[in-house]
Amino acid sequence: MKYSFLRVCLLLGFGVCHAQQVPVAIQVDASTPVGAMKPFWAYFGYDEPNYTTRPDGQKLLTELQQLSPVPVYVRAHNLLTSKGTSPGPDLKWGFTDAYSEDAKGNPVYNWTVVDSILDTYIQRGMKPLMEIGFMPEALSSKPDPYAHSWSQGGNLWTGWTYPPKDYSKWRELVYQWAKHSVERYGKAEVSTWLWEVWNEPDIAYWSGTFEEYCKLYDYAADGLKRACPECIIGGPHTTSPRSEKAYNYLTRFIEHCLRGKNYATGKTGTPLQYIGFHAKGSPELVDGHIRMNMGAQLKDIQRAFEAVNSFSELKNIPIIIGECDPEGCAACSETREPKYGYRNGTMYSSYTAASFARIYELMDQYQVNLQGAVSWSFEFEDQPWFAGFRDLATHGVNKPVLNVFRMFGMMSGQRVAVRSTSGLNASDIIAKGVRAEADVQAMASKNGRSVWVMLWHYHDDNLPGTASPVALTVKGLEAGPVQVHHYRVDGQFSNSFEKWKQMGSPQQVGTEQYQELERAGQLQLLTSPAWKVATDGTMTLPVELPRQAVSLIKLSW
After folding, report:
1. Where, if anywhere, are coiled coils annotated (predicted)?
2. Domain that holds residue 279
């Protein structure tokens, strides 16, 4: 029997089908595992360490740990930076004043601020990805000028970027820091942390040469291992390896650690216990709208995986994508850079779902041991509501993107096979982006008697578009009744930004408004939980997926 297009839509359960829009068929086979649902996404970072202990910072950290089934790792810049002449923390700027010198040039260590930051993590069951940097004013080989005023248009690359005037003092600083950490938190705890030296030494974050960075790393590793032989150190946390310069810097550093002369010990080789690099997309303004470039970010990851695999000695070495984001400037607001105007709404959340799924794909393809992918996004103090920074919350209210991490936090067990009549793969996106047809795709996992299916409707162009009907079929379930929970991030659900705009975009938010925004910032169900029947272990569900929306469907029996 032949059915009309409308009849097919009605049989699948769609009340209305858009003209000539055939439902995307997505098939999930819960009986076919493809790999572990590793929570590599449970890593977050930011420039401004002093925001850690502010009320909104503590609130957000609590929420991040609560959404994750594993300890969340946190990476922060400026853990050794001095205050200098700065009035206080600022965009891309923070300090701890951990190191100074007395009148005779003797080191003076003060761990008060560092401890307050680490205490905030440890009390929540989180783990620091300890960034050894930046250069304290008293140790900088070029300390004047020291503090930067980037947010007011000043030069960013000041005295904190320079090599130490004395590498032995630098080594001793790291030794004393690690020794103090072991005394305060215990070796069993500290040996679970990750340590690194500096950030993006291949660009202006480091005003020294490549050889001076290797020396900086060697001396730091020597000091760390003297205090804590069990501590884990790696790097070099270089920038996007799709650039030949960054790729070569990464591979030369690996060569140095494996086979070069250690500047600190004179021996061959330096401890390298994980590989760190950064991966960034590249949005632009095209004909008055924002166009994302997920392909650039995935290309970075692909190139770095190729680099690691080119060294036989690095088989199964842990890999940390130290910054893994749609672009490179968290502290640039939408006002400063209009191309960053995607961050408040659902484009950021759909991009995150779609890109992380492709990172799993690349991890499988290159058979690497990916441990973490740091989302360089936190919160900013003393800024307007929804100012368009790359952050997870504004004034303590969660933005839509945070709810995608809540979705990931609910998924566990083994990833299972998924097929879509519309979705792209990683190589497609690297080659052509998501510029023609939208990416309507899914990833799924199974653990025990539950299956989770995350679906997204993503497009690189931040333009209005029609919703996509999806016919989701899941097989490999137990025959009989199955409970269905359907969570959604879109223009209506789990979206504090849209709620704020409905309020008139106020910059002065009353108590009741704030509570309403808080509720809107939480992950919400699209519909009430329902029981449905899996016939022969198979169930078909109709889903209407708006453009840039993300759904998580949980099936339990």
Report:
1. none
2. 38-285+292-334+346-386
